[in-house]
Amino acid sequence: MTTVAAYAAPAAKAPLERTTIERREVGEFDVLIDIKFAGICHSDIHQAREGWGEAIFPMVPGHEIAGVVSEVGSGVTKFKVGDRVGVGCMVDSCRECENCKAGFEQYCLKGMVGTYNAVGKDGRPTHGGYSQKIVVDENYTVRIPDGLSLDVAAPLLCAGVTTFSPLRHWNAGPGKKVAIIGLGGLGHMAVKIAHAMGAEVTVLSQSLRKKDDGLKLGADHYYATSDPKTFEELQGTFDLIVSTVSAPLDFGAYLSLVKVDGALANVGAPEEPISLNLFSLIGGRKTLAGSLIGGIRETQEMLDFCAEHGIGAEIELISASEINEAYERVLNSDVRYRFVIDTATI
């Protein structure tokens, strides 16, 4: 085992604090990554505060990891020392079920192994990116193209692929009208990616406070959902709506904006259950769907796409000592648009 410094939540809802954790020795097919940057995802807060249910503590969050390979196992063929790499939301899966074999490891029928707040095949809890180093199987590691700086690439490992996947699945592109609910850490990436795919992009936000930002990021239109006229004007407009918010919505109202045979895909995960009148689906053969991150192959495709189109996250770089403050600011929507930890400060 190797001991490395990290920031961990010692218990649910407790402030994160500096500590040390053990990383396994580099196995035959493992890579040791010197973590350079780690994004702060709203998921980190949900899990560190047990908003999604019972969790494992102490917890080292972080599944938006960008770094450099410093050691490789004897059987590694995909990476070499010095390569720029990333790790997203999972570090293993069964590799045998139909979903894993199809490249949808995130939907592993036996359950993927999360980068943190999970138990690995060795029976030990996994720890994430708020740390100096991590050991990961090469098959769950992706290459960060040279065209992307590591700091703005880190959030792509969750926010990027989480929005890329449904946009690609529901064929966002030329001739398609796509709406993004929320302009936060996920939403701003969705706008950039949908725009690069060639779709006509609309942001649906509570207010017009971030309108100028949204238009600069690539949105063609921007509407305030607090204005009832928005729902009248946009009725039956969109081929696809992607909801990036983690609060319950009036899904009947938002489904009214979807065209016949269109879809409303959720990537935000509220802690509370929702209610739905099924007539809002039946009246238009509409789809209310969900999408979870992306598989390893799709994550690499997303990184290559973002490099090709010059897309990185809009970030605020912070030191590790600012993590707890950053959590509160995320909850207050006071970040434009993703906090990224400089792990050299851990």
What does this protein structure show overall?
By secondary structure, this protein is of the alpha/beta class. The chain has helices spanning 42-48, 98-101, 150-153, 159-169, 185-197, 211-217, 228-233, 251-255, 279-282, 296-309, 323-331; strands at residues 2-8, 17-23, 30-39, 65-72, 84-87, 90-92, 113-114, 133-137, 142-143, 177-181, 200-205, 221-224, 238-243, 258-266, 287-290, 315-318, 338-342. Strands 3, 4, 5, 8, 9, 16 and 17 form a seven-stranded mixed β-sheet that branches. A six-stranded parallel β-sheet has the order 12-11-10-13-14-15, with helices on one face. A two-stranded antiparallel sheet has the order 1-2. Helix 4 packs across helix 5. It is globular, with a radius of gyration of 20 Å. The model has no long low-confidence stretch (mean pLDDT 96). One of its GO terms (molecular function) is oxidoreductase activity.
**Rg from Cα:** 20 Å
The total number of structural domains is 2
The top-level CATH class of the largest domain is Alpha Beta
Supply the number of helical segments: 11
Mean of the pLDDT scores?
96
CATH fold call of the largest domain: Quinone Oxidoreductase, Chain A, domain 1
Strand content: 25-35%
Can you give me a brief rundown of this structure?
By secondary structure, this protein is α/β, with parallel strands linked by helices. It has helices at residues 42-48, 98-101, 150-153, 159-169, 185-197, 211-217, 228-233, 251-255, 279-282, 296-309, 323-331; strands spanning 2-8, 17-23, 30-39, 65-72, 84-87, 90-92, 113-114, 133-137, 142-143, 177-181, 200-205, 221-224, 238-243, 258-266, 287-290, 315-318, 338-342. The chain contains 11 helices and 17 strands.
